[in-house]
Amino acid sequence: MASQTENNTLQKIQCDKFDIHAVSNLSLFLFDGFYFYYAKDQNGKILAIHSQSYESPRLLAFKLKDEKLLKLDIPIRVFNHASPFSLVPGMLFESPLSPIFLFFAEKPKENMHVFDTTLASNNLHLVGSIRKELAELLSEDKSDITFHHGGSSFLSFALKEKFNLLNQEVMVLIQKGFFYLIAFTNQELTLFNKFEIENKEDFLKYTLGMIHQLNFNRMFCRISVFGDTSFYRIEEEWGNLYFKNFRISIPFSNIQYQEGTEVFQKPEIFESFWVLP
């Protein structure tokens, strides 16, 4: 059995035999307004999950500083969804130029730590950023910490699936306040973008616009939607009014759970099924 504590802003799930000394590594996921992380044992199974909301960057730093597991000197990966990004072909990428590549997505801000994630056997680099003070807080007393853009897990999943895709394929991950959209043409990546969303009409507007831009045929292309679809009441029946091949999907999983902690695995939480390998 697992132990759970939960209120409006905080949730903790731990396996029944949780032992802090058994924690081997951590993965932390940062969003606007909330974060969660999970702890894995040496066999790669999740032992505990902790999620928490926050109201400001100052409160985020305060709450992260108070997290006991995050104080451990063990490998930690930080995935920041609250960041602009730039996807750069491997043949063009040079690490010292990462801030310049990120400039194409958003005007540079002061005191930012810029990082990149290598994908598709060095053929792609996803560049993102995080506030320097937050990066320093998370890095304190850590000998092994890496930073990734939050979209890297979904993009890695899509690239893993590319040989099972149609000639015109769209994959969407819906989160609260935004969605990622990935398009493949003839099994080759042609688009990866992020759109703000308030309702399902926004989803339809941006998706139809992208299909038009890529000269896809909405009566032929397949659209697979992952994530928190219920939040915007996006359903297959509704999607099939506009697209012939529209489906709500659940990713196959590369994550294992200790008994009891699998209650965290829900279709609306993509990272509860798949994380960047």
Structural overview:
The protein has 277 residues and is of the alpha/beta class. Helix content is 18%, strand content 36%. The strands form 3 sheets. Strands 1, 2, 3, 4, 5, 6, 10 and 16 form an 8-stranded mixed sheet that branches. A 5-stranded mixed sheet has the order 13-12-11-14-15, with helices on both faces. Strands 7-9-8 form a 3-stranded antiparallel sheet. The longest helix has 14 residues, at 200-213. The radius of gyration is 19 Å and the shape is globular. The two termini are 28 Å apart. The mean pLDDT is 94.
Query: Can you tell me the overall shape?
Result: globular
Note the gap between the termini.
28 Å
Please state roughly what percent of the residues sit in beta strands, choosing from under 5%, 5-15%, 15-25%, 25-35%, 35-45% or over 45%: 35-45%
Low-pLDDT sequence parts: none
Structural class: alpha/beta
Q: Spell out the helices and strands N to C.
A: EEEEEHEEHEEHEHEEEHEHEE
Instruction: Kindly state the number of beta strands.
Output: 16
Q: Mean pLDDT, rounded to whole units?
A: 94
Can I get a quick summary?
With 277 residues, this protein is an alpha/beta fold.
List keywords for this structure.
277 residues, alpha/beta, eight-stranded mixed sheet, five-stranded mixed sheet, 6 helices, 16 strands, 18% helix, globular
